[in-house]
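Incident log, structure service

09:12 report received: a user says their structure output differs between two submissions of the same chain.
09:20 pulled the input from the user's history:
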Amino acid sequence: MAFLKFNKAELVNLSYSLGREIVLANKTGAYCNTSIVTCNTRRYHGLLAVPVDGLGGGKYVLLSSLDESIISTGHQFNLGIHCYGDLYEPKGHKYIADFNYDKIPEITLKVGSVVMKKSLLLDPSADRVMIRYELVEAAGPITLELKPFLAFRNIHSLTAENSDARTWYRDVENGVVFNMYDGFPDLNLQTSVASEFKSAPCWYKGITYSDEYRRGFDCVEDLFAPGVFSIEMKKGDSFVFAAGVDPVKTGSLKAKFTRTLSGMKAVDNFQDLLVRNADLLKTTRNGKNQINAGFSWLETGLLRETLMSLTGLTLYANGSCEDFEAILDCLIKDEGERLYHRTTQVEAPLRLADVLQQYIDFAGDDRGVWKKYGAVMKGVIDSYAPGVRKEVTLHPNGLLWAQMDRVALSWMNAYIDGNPVTERAGYQVETNAWWYNALCFALDMERMYGSDEEFIRRWTPVRELAFLNFEKVFYVKEWGYLADYVDNNGPHGEVRPNMMIAAYVPYSPVSDEVKSAVMNVVKYELITKRGIRTLSPRNVNYSGVYEGSQVERDLAYHQGCTRTELLGPYIDICFRIVGPSYVPRAEYHIEGFVEDINKHGVGCFSELYDGDPPHEPHGAVSSACATAALLRCEYLIAKNLGL
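09:34 re-ran on a clean worker, output below:
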């Protein structure tokens, strides 16, 4: 029985089924993303979206959707579904009898005595989606017609009927090829069996994406349907429809589908699900090993998100030090500007120390790690020297002051009308905790395994000053916790999870007493069953539900929404304090995500959740940081159980 499953009653209820999405992805960076009834509700949805190197490497939807029609005993039944304003037409979802997601999504369609099974698979090594159709039951022969809807546009934009579109096609083995605009790759539409393509070019106007409408975004576009493929079938027949940027030998399509499917691991439990998602979020394209921050709209190769998710998606997912180093090496090569010169993510380069510390703890080769990455880590430290970075200043007290007018210089970087919601200019508590940890780590490692006496001489006094002043600047005894940030007006007392980093880092700049106070505040005001809130509910600016207009959602993004990625540091601290006896509580914090695997992104782990119960999921349906954090938590639980 499939681990992920929906019944007919759930599927025909559009208010339920349209809010649940499937995501398939592969190593090339291509993806397939739609709802469980294959009705697209976001501009990012499509059966095939691919990176297009010739257009800057962004992702582009080529094949938006594919409508099926069954012709039986002279009657035609359209199984597709599209939204036009408030109307859904056709209403093909009423023919969906079952949905299973074991290795891949499998949808069972039932029209009278005809039972058809549709399975979706993304080619693991090519920009190609494959859909297998199996006629399970039929009283006699039927005709299956497939109508592709083409978009050929960036995932962030919408398209409309226009005279520039090239609507003609070329023939290819068992199919046709389209290329609607300059700079795009071809889209090869092919079937594994002989089929007839009937040209009937038409623009379908006013297709509406309900999720975009609900959020107040542009939500209407026109899609080009060039015609239909017609295939004769009888009971027991099956074939594969393929849409890809390169043509394929159609005689091998069914075997390729079967071989790929048999090589995939079934999902039998929560750990399997985490490992599969970790694999989907890692890409290898043009010789680059990278992490996709999240599907469908988050980017690939981002500095902060890669550093936050790297250990989880590699070391804690499959134990691969090779994957870890390949991705980190690529990141260092690509992100030199942010690592060494300037970035609005002021703490992000300093997270490298945490990544290397986790790697050493996992692999045990501290000498080898420092030999390979020591120069990079020292370069990051040197970039925070006075006069190097404009966005952050090293003060005489050893702490970092981050300030740029109307710029959010931390991970809390939502904006409304060009103004940051949480600017937090000044001494940021988490930035300075990362800073102190990085200083200590680099100095200790260089003393043990390096020979750069000048580096040690230059930065040792700074480390001592940072330790001496951290508690003085951030700890407010009357509050009993650390200030979130300190500016010219003094300490700001918003209760946020940022203070937790001072208790988390291996080289902590605070006493055990302060650590305990911080963790108590986090425990009683921020922790939930879906991660850790970004702001205490006691704060007047708290927003516990991520819904409404763009402004309303931006106000909630870092003002109450929970973040799964914060569970990693939180549970790590708790195990250090309590030891193995914390295992039941750690498992409790993970259980909530097991309950949600049939929501939002089916079998995926969402970017954020409401701060208020029942903590509904939102944002990107598959988040690298969330997936990595849960993998780390599972690893810590197993480690403390002695497994």
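09:41 both user submissions now match this output. Likely a transient worker issue. Closing.
09:42 reviewer note: The longest helix spans residues 453-474. The CA atoms of residues 63 and 150 lie 5 Å apart.
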